[in-house]
Each structure stands twice: as C-alpha cells, then as structure tokens.
Amino acid sequence: MSSSSRSPLSDSQPNPRRSAASSEARPRVASRWLWFHKLGSPPYAYGLATKLRPWLMWSSLILMLIGAYGGLVLAPPDYQQKDAFRIIYVHVPAAIMSLQVYLAMAIAAAVGIIWRMKLAHAFAAACAPVGAWFTVAALATGSIYGKPMWGTWWEWDPRITSVLIQLFLYLGYMALRASFDDTQRADRASAVLAIVGVVNVPIVKYSVVWWNSLHQGPTISKLDTPSITLSMGWPLYTLVLAFMVYFAAVMCDRLRSEILKRERNASWLQENIARS
Amino acid sequence: MNLQSFLSMSGYGAYVWSCYGLTIAVLLWNVWSARRQLREAIVHARRRTEAQREDAARRGAGAGVPGEVRS
C-alpha cells in the first residue's frame, strides 16, 4: 500500500521529447492542467466531496419537487394514455441515468487504466451500485408502465432485453470487484469489464431505431425537433437534471468511502479523521 | 381539481403511484446506504489509526519487556 498523499499524476516524468521542443510553453500548460491535478489528488477530492454534498442534495431535492409538481399536476393528460403517461417522469430519468452512470463509470475506468490514476478507479467503483439501482428502477417502472399500455408486464423486446443486460453488466462488475482482496487488482480487472461493457450503451440507446420494438422511438433526444410538447417536456427535463444532481450528491459519499478504503495509511487522512 | 380525481389518475392510479413510490424508495435507499457505508468506513479508519498509535506508543515505551501487560 502506498502511503502517498501526493497527486497520483505528480510523479510522472515529463516527456523528454516534448519538453525539449517547448520548454517555454510548459508553465502555461502546467497551469492549464492544474485543476486536473488538484481534482486527481485524494485529499482535495475528499474535502471537495464533503463540502459539495449538502448543496447538491438540497438542489436535487428542490428540482425533484418542482419537476414532480409539474409532471403530476401542471402537465395536461395525454390524449391517448390519459394520466398513465405521468409514469414517464420517473421512468425516463431513471433509464437515462442507468446509461449515463455506466458511461461515467467506463470513462473513469479508462482514465484509471491509462493514467494509473487511483482516484478515477475509486470513482468507477463508487458508480456501480448507484447505476445498478437506477437500472432496477427503470426496469421496474417500465414493467408497471407496460401492463396498462401494452397489456404485458414483460416482453423480450430489444429495448427491455438490452436494459436487462445493462443491469447484469453492473452486477457482474460488482461481483468481479468483490472477488479480489487486493483493491488495485480489483480496479484493473473490473476496469476492463467496464470498458468492454460500454458496447451495450449504444445498443440500448438505438435498440428502438434498429429493431422493431414495442417501445416508442426517440422522443426527447432530437433536441431541435423534440416529439414532446413543452408543457409535458419541461417537467421531464427538470427531473432528468434533478436525477443527475442527485447522482452527484450520492457519489460524494460513495467516493469518500472508496478514498477511505484506498488511502487508509495516508497521513492526511489520519489527521482528517482524528479531527472530525 | 379535487383530490379524488388526482389520486385516481383517470383509473391508472395503482400503476402511476406504485411507480412513483418505487422510484422514491430506490432514491432514499441509495442515499441511506451511501451514508451508512461512509459512516462505517470512517469508524473503521479511526479504529485503525488509534490501534496504530497505541502500537507505536507501546513499542516506544517498553519494547521487548517480556510479560508486559498494558492496562
């Protein structure tokens, strides 16, 4: 276990070829990437997550209340689905997050492998349970939505099946991590799974375009010409934003737990814990 | 708009409200389990730090004294 509290990037050697060519430009480049070095340093990220968490949690709660009021009360009933359409205000944000969180997890895993950045691995590990729960919520609300609209709880339809695979990818990722005692080995092995599994993200997204599906086609992603009117759309956009902020708030706690696990011998952490 | 028609959701009340209830349950569970995990991690790390400190103090005070029992 390394007990370093430095930025994981700070010990990388400067590229000799590049530094010879642009020795004058280097200070500027360094300052431009300073935020990245700071963010990659566990003590800084730990402190930032502690500070940001209440702000994120409260703003997501306010956004959720506004969105739910808009979706349940202000939006007019659909001309075909009547009030049952209001399920989209929880179903769609959960489904969007199940993909977004996976994408964030895979990108973090790739950054962790390429730049050997401990914090990126910690971020990826923290993503998985939250993403899995979003996927469960999307599948369950979709199933309840399907019963009155399609007349069935479940159908082996391309969209539903690919989202189920998404859930198994999250569960596989977590099971793979749990099978290693050594955190660094767990990081590297699970990162490969996360990166390979990213192929499923476009499959889920375009499943309704590529194959005949019970599920409706893209509705809100065509930003120039969305197929949803503004009076029904704004609560949905608000709730998607609320879920994203909520995810960030939950990640603050999960990321701190992951940092605690990895940096337990670091002196900054021992001082921090003794103080709190 | 009266409360009864709001709750009935034009007959789809059971479907709509179970979806909302389920989603709220998942959201609350995520917050709670992340908090619990963090609290456990902090307690664990603090115990570890204290144990290390005691260990260091013991070694500094009476290293190699056989049969020494710390109270």
User: In total, how many beta strands of chain A?
Assistant: 0
Main interface by residue count: A-B, 40 and 31 residues
Strand content of chain B: under 5%
Structural class of chain A, by secondary structure, is: mainly alpha
Tell me the fraction of residues in β-strands of chain A, as a range: under 5%
Report the order of strands and helices of chain A.
HHHHHHHHHHH
Distance, first to last CA of chain B: 72 Å
Mean pLDDT of chain A: 86
Number of helices of chain B: 2
Q: What profile does the largest beta sheet of chain A have?
A: none
| Helix/strand order of chain B | HH
Tally of contiguous helical segments of chain A: 11
Characterize the main sheet of chain B. Answer: none
Poorly predicted regions of chain A are 1-25
Q: Outline of chain B, from the CA principal axes?
A: rod-shaped
Roughly what is the average pLDDT of chain B, rounded to an integer?
Answer: 85
Fraction of residues in H or I helices of chain A: over 70%
Bin the helical content of chain B: over 70%
Keywords summarizing the entry:
heterodimer; A: 276 residues; mainly alpha; 73% helix; B: 71 residues
Structure report:
The complex is a heterodimer of chains A (276) and B (71). In chain A, 73% of the residues lie in helices and 0% in strands. Chain A has 276 residues and is mostly helical. Chain A has a domain at 80-215 and 227-275. Chain A is globular, with a radius of gyration of 22 Å. The two termini of chain A are 24 Å apart. In chain A, helix 6 (118-150) runs antiparallel to helix 7 (158-178), helix 6 (118-150) crosses helix 8 and helix 7 (158-178) packs antiparallel against helix 9 (200-210). Chain A has helices at 16-21, 26-32, 34-39, 42-74, 88-114, 118-150, 158-178, 183-197, 200-210, 230-262, 267-275. Mean pLDDT of chain A is 86; it is low at 1-25. By secondary structure, chain B is mainly α. Chain B has a domain at 21-59. Chain B is 79% helix and 0% strand. Chain B is built from two helices and no strands. Chain B has helices spanning 3-8, 13-62. The radius of gyration of chain B is 28 Å and the shape is rod-shaped. The model of chain B has no long low-confidence stretch (mean pLDDT 85). The chains are: A mainly alpha (276), B mainly alpha (71). At the A-B interface, helix 4, helix 5, helix 6, helix 10 and helix 11 of A face helix 2 of B.
